[in-house]
Amino acid sequence: MTPKAKAWKACSRYCRLRDALAYCKEHGLDLHQFSRPEDIIGACCTCGAVKSWIWMDGGHYISRASQGLSGVYFDERNVNLQCKQCNGFKQGAAQEYRKFIIKKYGEDMPDELLQKHYILPDMKDLAMRATVRPPLPWLVKSHKTVTACKLRPTMLKGPEQRRYYSPGNRTGGVGKE
């Protein structure tokens, strides 16, 4: 896996869980009702669909450029919880996403993100910062109502078999990676 892919995986998981925890806090949901952190629900920033954060995407307000680089690709203000329908099939639902960014961060944020978009990042530096980011169990434990939640081990029977959860397989299953 390339440094950029590692950095994106960490950034996406962090931002999606951040938004799901904020949704639960906003609506007064007790996080102890979820048996695993993967079960915590969140709302899509563009259409408002409520689903488990693990089955949603980290959608970008400003996507990467033609060469795959953007100054805001890993900016946390540019990455928010978005359902796969809006992020994939509606190409990010740009108009609704812009309204969300203005509501959450203020009137000047779309212009600030657009200016930062043209400043190209150093990918090695971003990969190093992604590894310094707190791991998911720390993020979950940092919220006082979730101290009992712990991530379960994913290994099942052998090194090449893992438990996976996907929208097509909601009960979980064994598969080869």
Comma- or semicolon-separated keywords:
alpha+beta; 177 residues; two-stranded antiparallel ribbon; 38% helix; 6 strands
DSSP strand count: 6
Average pLDDT number: 76
Q: How many domains, in number, for the residues? A: 1
Binned, the helix content reads 25-40%
Q: Approximately how much beta-strand content do the residues carry?
A: 15-25%
Going across the biggest sheet, name each strand in turn. 1-2
Structural class: alpha+beta
Q: What is the alpha-carbon Rg in Å?
A: 17 Å
Distance between the termini: 14 Å
Total helical elements? 6
The unreliable regions are 144-177
The main pleated sheet reads as: 2 strands, antiparallel
Order of helices and strands: HEEEEHHHHHEE
- Overall shape: globular
What's a quick, concise take on this entry?
The chain has helices spanning 3-26, 84-89, 94-105, 109-117, 123-132, 136-142; strands spanning 41-43, 50-52, 57-60, 79-82, 161-166, 169-176. The protein is α+β, with helices and mostly antiparallel strands.
What is this structure's SSE topology?
Layout: H1 3-26, E1 41-43, E2 50-52, E3 57-60, E4 79-82, H2 84-89, H3 94-105, H4 109-117, H5 123-132, H6 136-142, E5 161-166, E6 169-176
Antiparallel strand pairs: 1-2, 3-4, 5-6
Helix pairs in contact: 1-5
Task: Write a structural description.
The protein has 177 residues and is of the alpha+beta class. It has one domain (3-150). It has helices spanning 3-26, 84-89, 94-105, 109-117, 123-132, 136-142; strands spanning 41-43, 50-52, 57-60, 79-82, 161-166, 169-176. It has a two-stranded antiparallel sheet with strand order 1-2. A hairpin with a 2-residue loop joins strand 5 and strand 6. Helix 1 crosses helix 5. The protein is globular.
